[in-house]
């Protein structure tokens, strides 16, 4: 049967979900099944988009195909490469705060976890007055397997994405051969392998890099592993009662992009469209002393910088700084305090509450901006 290997992989993937070590209640399991659905969809897309002679950019992750603690402020795209071919990348720069490129290695089945060969942002390419640009990649990028593009928003409401395309230079104007039964059979098999690898890899990654940290703490800012040389991050995980809040205090720094987000124990972002589970510096309220004070809690504390737990007692916290011109230090990083929600008016030095109508307007603005961005 053509789809047998893929069907078997889905059953195995369900076992990975149901036996995940963090599953403690029905909510964990329901979210796991939802994560599984998105992973199935993404795995099929990756297998069918595995085209290195006639490549095109596809969305790597999105609201229904989440993975790897996806950044709510980022559009992710990828295209497959051959290291002995030349590729022409053309595009138009949008108004987003950052546009970065990363070349991942692989001699390459798409089921392997790649390393980084190069990473750079649009400051290193020539952009014309009309926003257009053109790049040539290869040949000679030894081991190159994938080009990843990240377009990052700070102001969801006003910034607009650009346009990008990729073509193999010696295939422009030609066409790929029609699919064969053997090729489709292989793609279903590859999709199954991607699915299992995807689930196991990110569950293990989260346990290794987050859960070994002390709970309710955040690390000093550090260069992000994997070759994103212009990004620093601070990471941690929380475990809070419903009457507790975590105050995360961080300077509103000079990096063009600065953001914070929450994630579930499945290592994916929480609902960032209908709830305020993330904030960029442009979206956050900055106190008169130049500090941003985020409040992570289940109960509504009545402040603009509330990050909603949305019923998640446990989860991940990630702060990112991008397009940096300098290395960050501990002085640039967050300070964490766990307090009672009822004590917040006394403990926040610039207490500026907002009412229910103002909060509803904030959520409405997120929904409208996210809907616009998803069309990009």
From TrEMBL:
<protein>
    <recommendedName>
        <fullName>DUF1214 domain-containing protein</fullName>
    </recommendedName>
</protein>
